[in-house]
Design goal:
The structure is a single chain. The chain is α+β, with helices and mostly antiparallel strands and 130 residues long. The chain folds into 2 domains: 67 residues, Arc Repressor Mutant, subunit A, CATH 1.10.10.10; 38 residues, no CATH class. The protein is 48% helix and 14% strand. It contains 5 helices and 5 strands. The strands form 2 sheets. The chain has a 3-stranded antiparallel β-sheet. A hairpin with a 2-residue loop joins strand 2 and strand 3. The radius of gyration is 23 Å and the shape is elongated.
């Protein structure tokens, strides 16, 4: 692979749980396809297809060592995913800030009964019903 544009979208490539597991395996070391396929209940050919999709997205790089192909992680394309997720992180942080404020505002010794309209939560009554 070179500096050519990826043929696969990074988001589509990592959408499959098998491909995410392949990336996890390759995060620590370069591996041949036989070693990778030993971690999955599928044929070597099926694993090779997953590797091809990851390579097309620029997420793995292959090199030939004798008759064997070895694969290693190329994490740079994951920066696109990180930037995309960073935008939405503010929504999670906002919810956690509201929750923290509500918990800290509750007086000590209070049983926590009542409701929390900011989060859309309603405490259960003693009988177990909201």
């Amino acid at each position: 692979m070179g500096a050519a544009e990826p043929k696969q979208d990074v988001f589509q490539a990592i959408a499959d749980p098998t491909r995410r597991k392949v990336l996890n395996l390759l995060a620590g070391q370069e591996m041949p396809v036989n070693a990778i396929s030993g971690h999955f209940p599928m044929s070597r050919t099926a694993v090779s297809k997953h590797l091809r999709i990851l390579a097309d997205a620029g997420l793995v790089q292959e090199r030939k060592v004798g008759r064997e192909k070895r694969y290693r992680l190329q994490p740079e394309p994951l920066l696109e995913l990180k930037r995309w997720l960073a935008y939405y992180e503010r929504f999670w942080e906002n919810r956690l800030s509201v929750l923290k404020h509500l918990v800290e505002a509750e007086e000590p010794g209070e049983s926590g009964s009542g409701s929390s309209p900011a989060l859309g939560l309603k405490a259960a009554e003693p009988g177990g019903r909201p």
